[in-house]
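[INFO] parsing input record for Dihydrofolate reductase
[DEBUG] input buffer:
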Amino acid sequence: MGFIHIDLFTTLDGVAQAPGGPEEDTEGGFRFGGWQAPLIDDVVGEQVGAGMAGMDALLLGRRTYETFASYWPHVENGDDGGIARLFNRLPKYVASRQALTLDWANSTLLRGDVVAAVRGLRDRHEHIHVIGSLDFVQTLFAERLCDRLTLWVHPILLGSGKKIFATGVAPTSLRLIEPVVSSPRGVVRQRYEFLDEVPGVGDMSLRDREG
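[DEBUG] output buffer:
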C-alpha cells in the first residue's frame, strides 16, 4: 500500500493560506498572500527538491490544482524547470465537489466518493504527495488518510488566515522521522509519520514524587 505525504508551508502560528503569491487565495480578505517569498533560500529549495524523490503522483484540492495548472506547464525552461517537468509528467488527481475542466496533461478528477477514491490511489501509487490544498487536507486528517507530514515552519506570525488544524483533527500520535533542520533565514523543516495510536496521558505530579 502506498504512502500519502502532506507537504505544507506554514507560519509559526499555523497559517498556511496562500504562501506563494498575492492572488493565490484571497478568501476571507487575506492580505498576506506571498508571505513565503521573502524567506525562501537555497536550503529550503534543496529540501523541497529532495522531498520529491520517489514521488509518483500528485493529489490536489481544486484551488491548488488551478494555481499549479496556470503556472507549471509554462516554465519547463526556467529556473524551476526540473520541478515543472516532474509535475507535468506525473499523474495528477483532483478532489473537488465542482465540475472542472482539466486542461493540464495527465489530470483526473476524483468523482463520487472522494474518500474511497483516495484509498484506491494507495493501491496504484507508492508515494502520493499533497501540496498545499489546505481545505482538502482537513478531510485527509479527519479520515486518517495520511502517512507522512512535512512542515516548513516560517518565523512570522500573521494572526488571521486559513490554518492547518483550523477545524480540529482526530487525536493522533506522530513520530519525528528526521532531525529538525533550520535554514539560514530561520525556516524550520519538521518531518513526521502518523502512528496508528492516540496520544498517551500521564500524571506529572506522580512523576515528580517518583523523582
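[INFO] The chain has six helices and nine strands.
[INFO] shutting down worker
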